[in-house]
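Margin note from the TA: students keep mixing up input and output lines. Inputs are the sequences; the output is the structure of the whole complex. Example:
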Amino acid sequence: MKNLRVIFTGLLVSVSISMASGQQLPVNYGNIPDELVAFDKYQKAYKYHFIEPMEFYGAGRELPFPTDLKEVRIGFLGPLEGSIISNLGQQMLQGSVLAIEEANKKGGYKGIPFKLMIHNDVGLWGAAANELVKMDDEGVWAWLGSIDDIVSHVAIRATLKLEIPNINTGDPDPTFTETNIPWVLRTIPDDRQSSYALVDKIFVKDKHTRVAVIRANNRYGRVGILHFNRTSTRIGYPLIIEERFMDNETDFRPQLNRIKKTSPDAIQIWGNAKESALILQQIRELGMNQPVYASDRVVSKEFLEIAGSLAENIITTCQYNPEANDPKLKAFKANYVKRFGQEPDVFAAHAYDGMNIIIEAIRKAGLNRVLIRDLLTDLKTFQGYQGVTGPIHFDGTWNNIRPIFMAQVKNGKFEFYPAPAYQKDNTIYKKTSMGY
Amino acid sequence: MKKIYWKLVLIIGVIGLLIILIYPPFHRWARAHVNYQTAVEDHPLNCLSCHLYTQKTGLISKLINADYYSPFNLALSNDGKRLYVVAEESNTLLVVDTEKRKVTNKIKVGYRPHTVILDKDEKYGYVSNQWEDNIYVIDLGNNIVIDTLDTGNGPAGIALSSDGKFIYAVNSYTNDISVIDLSSGREWKRLAAGNNPTGIGMSPDGRRLLVTSRRANLVPYGDPVVCELTVIDEDTKMVIDRQDMNSAYMLENIAFTPDGELALIPLIRPKNLVPSIQVEKGFMMTNGMAVIEQKPDGRVIQLLLDEPNEYFADPFDVAITPDGKRAFVSHAGVNRISVIDMDSIRSFISHTPTEMLEYYSNHLGISSKYLVKRIVTGANPKGLVLSSDGRYLYVAEHLEDRIAVISTESLETVNTIDLGGPKRITVARQGRRILNNASGTFQTQYACYTCHPDAHEDGLVYNMASKDMGRNLANTQSLRDIGDTPPFKWNGKNQTIYKQDGMRFSTVLTRNEAFNYKDLDALVAYIVTGIPYPPNLLYNPTGELNAMQLRGKALFERTIDNHGNEIPEKQRCITCHPPPYFTNKNFEDVGSLLASDDSMLFDTPHLNNIYASPPYLHHGRALTLEEIWTVYAEEDTHGAVNDFTKIELNELIEYLKSIREPEYYINESKKNKVLQAKIKNH
Amino acid sequence: MKRIFSNKLFRYSLLVLIIAGAGVLGLSKSRKPNSGAMKPKKAEMADFSTIESREKEARPGNISEGIPIYGNWKTFTEKDGLPSDKCYAVRIDKERNRVLVGTHHGLAVYQDGKWTTYTKEDGLAHNGIVSIDISVLTGDVWIGTLGGLNRWSGGKFETFTQFNSGMPNDLVYNVFCYGKDVWCATGGGAGHYDTQTRQWEIFTEMNAPMHEPWTYALSAGDGKVWIAAWGGGVIEYNTVTKQFRDYVDPDGFMEIDLQPDDGVVHDITTATSYSDGILWISSYFGMSRYDGKNWKGYFDHDSGIASNFINFLRAERNVVFVCCDEGLSCTDGTTWVTYHKFDNSTDGKAIVKEGNTLIKEVPLSPSISHNFIIGVDAEDDVLWVATSKGVCRGELLN
């Protein structure tokens, strides 16, 4: 028995190492645990998508590199003005700027400096699409962005038409890479991973059964909770109530009073930092003492400042470990603080990595959008890329499915630890042989 | 008897004393009042000027005003015996026996008829009703209306297809052309035209139609004036060309030479962006015609009909004799018909290089090469028609209620046909004549009507050349019901129309003697009483708003924004633009001031029929209603709109387009008050 | 009887009745016109059956019965006068005997054997021409660009943008003329412009059953408009009742298609096209066919389709031309002809399949210009195809 344990542990370690080196794709798309594969308990699907990476069969590889450039342009699209997440956009911009500046110090692209073409994605109706067209007119070779789910979706559809490689470092909407666009990569782990981790933590590890949700009435809240709800329901715990709030709302008592009446034994918040902190305050003001879980955007200084001591023990996920003992990360943080006078957040760190990947792809592939794309998406060159946010493991949709982290507030600050592997429940999972 | 006498003396004495006591202060007050109203100190103290002739409704208004015919466009039977006269103001088609020179039939037609045409067999006539959006089909045998054909908005010029199976209606308000299948009476399709299209003419070979435009294309500020001439292929009934009429507008009607080689179109060449001091230099508005070669790659030539030191304002209609030798152009602004020798035109353009012709398009002396004579007419000559033998020219003397018959041989008016309208000329009618006549302007370059066609506006931005030339450019404003929304001018400096059209008018605009007070009284009377709004048939025909407009109305009247915040009162649409005129008549800054403007607030404009008045804002740079907010008020300076979705902005704009004439809202308000009173009493 | 007629009262009554009858008759015949200002319009232009018959009349669709096979391909690229090899759209303007091609660097017009290019300098909203349609009624060409919508009429371009009009967004992915309306799918929602009232009505997540305003293409027929909503399946809009309904993948999961013929194959739809009562829908995951009652899905593993990644499709009569990233397919739903160009050669082949069973392969020399197909249009005996590397023209072989 002991031997068996040793063998099993050995196998587990080797699988982990193999995974960590990023050479092996998981069996199920998107790290989906076996028992959460859609309809798998009952029948095989007629068609499984996203297993094989898309190829781009269009022309363009034959285009010669331009020889008269004074600068090599890279696009940036983010919420910079007029948005409730402008602070996140600024961090993303700063992370990108730092990467560009460092690259230029190292000679840019064959002596030609990189230049960031900065675009605000908040504007009149469908601004993101128009900004992508402007980027195309500017002749960018690739672009980075954005954070807001709607903006990012609008922009990648334009990027497909315009054939400009894109790396997204801030939008965790799972559907972002489920569009089959062979021009788009995402380096920030998505809400699917956050949902699995939170559901495992809340229902399996912490044994809660009656969970209430209050979420932002926007795509971030809607899609995040969609996956959370699907996951919890599949393991037998449908949400008992789902309340919504608007951006910039400050009084959540009506929703919370409705939640209170359902007597939940835990509450999940899915929203931006400010609203999440205010909700937490009002939960406690209403005498509700249940454990509170939150979404990834609470991992911020703003949340801790507003929530104060009430933030203690709040649990959420984080796409990377900002406190990791990694010299690369430490150097980044030090340089970032030096350059911008503030600590980098998750959006800054991922943008830094994403922009470095773009720079490296341009340097290696040359000034040709299709060749840059080919390199970015070959699942070799950047598979296992070690950035300041950790390793990158792309799946067949170029979605980074590396393990994520749990974050818990302890003594007024977040502490991070790897999200435990999803605990499989064999009583639920029963593979079927039916179907195609 | 003595007693009575002394009593009378006493009463008269007391009255006299009272008068002596009261008169001086009353006179002083009246003088001050009239001085304020007229902005001059010597206007006669005649209460009737303002308080009688400016009555818009009621018994007095009915007594002092009269209903005129105002003949506009004409058609003549092939035998020359029956003249069909569109009587614009009486909504009738008059049938005139040209031999007896009498009106034999009055056929009631639609609201504000515009054009009449006859089919080849002269079995049917067609009358476009510009303010009713349809064409009446008239049985010419029985002189009765037998059918109605629906058109687009504001049908003006009409033409039959060469096979007589279709009729084209030029929709002057929606800028398109309805092609109507006469066999079914249904509109087959609608073709896009230029801005404010009006006239339409079929080429003699029946293969092409030309459609004129009165207003210039909406272009970014500073771009030259360009008007479109739309060319339709008769076979496919599709637009095959849109020719540029550079530096010209007010293209009204069309005539082809019988051989089809040339088409003539009267036009005006405005120099709106040069300071209006140019009036004194004889170079503000010039009047002429386009001569368009119809051969492939034919040239578009413009020739003036003016002369040095004398201008022939507002050319309207054109007719060419069957032998192609002579053309006649009516000049509505100076009561003249120009007689043009066509062979001279042919010779001149064939021997002159194109670049020289471009030069000549501004040449005031060139008309001497082809001009034969000017024939004097009655007030405001508009439509022309020649008899099929070419011997007689009939002229619709619009504000004379008369038809002039001109011999094309003697080039004299040989007869007139009285249409039977009122014989007296009311004060308002006299005012209308003044507004339509250029005699008040330096060398008769233009009339009020020129920049205010149909008493509306011409869509151009002018440099009024006040003391700082090149500053404070002004988008022409409509005169429709303008009297009810003082003050006047964009900066609201003129408190009354008297002031607006008085001395200021002559120093800034006409560069001539100011109107005498009698004429000024008449002009004011017309402007205040006689300029109605066309019905808003396109966007709000019944007063019942559609769902989109209702949502837009709610946005217009909202007090809370999309985020739940209260909108400051000054930033609500309804605050500055309340019905019935949709102006609070106050001054505001909506962030539209340009660097070239003096620092000033703007008189809040009224919004009635606002859909018909592009471009927008005082500088006319907002080419569409959307641009008021998407381009010129990005920071919520012109109402709070930045929280709008695009759908909401569209809804607001659809509501704005639905705004009708003020009377509608006044009547609605009265009805509501009555209803509320009833509810209260109940 | 005589007494009755001699009765004055009766005679007067009769007279009154006759006069009244004549009056009524006269009134009913004379069609009193003068109150016409506010009366309802006689001819309702939104009558879709009329629109439909006019569309069909104008585009009779001379494609032969059965599945057409095209050959004698001729390719046009920058070397031949195209402004760019990247061609987004192609439309045959039969009335004017010319072909319009939308490229990344302008509108190219092929007429009398020559190419002419139009760009922003000529009045286009943007040089990137993404979509083209022609109004069968007016002959006006409507052009969707990366920076606005253009009407090209009588040689002049008129521009509509989100700033100067009610248009939802300047990135116009698709434009479709239907009767007097011009429909657009844009980066900020779908909408239609009524060319007569000049009113825009736009549809986004605010007023239509789509989660977000992501629309990619649309088509219309029989009074309905089908909007390909990116992530929202297909939104059907009934122009008569003004009602919506949506068609989404019934299994609700992005990563699978549970049942093959249970509905639209995926929510990420890229185009719709309607002909002969059949709605065809493309996606980047396969194609769907809907006859109003039954759905049928097509994938590369179970049919003759070139690939599952479909940029666009256009149905003409009983067949649909499918623009895939690995070739051009044509099908009636059963028989397939797929055009494929060989790598490093101008030659290729037409692969004929029944279902997924190979029937024959027809060698093509030369073949289509490129396998990455973005646009297509068929008229009479010719097929024009816009590709990632030039535009090509094929002639009907059968």
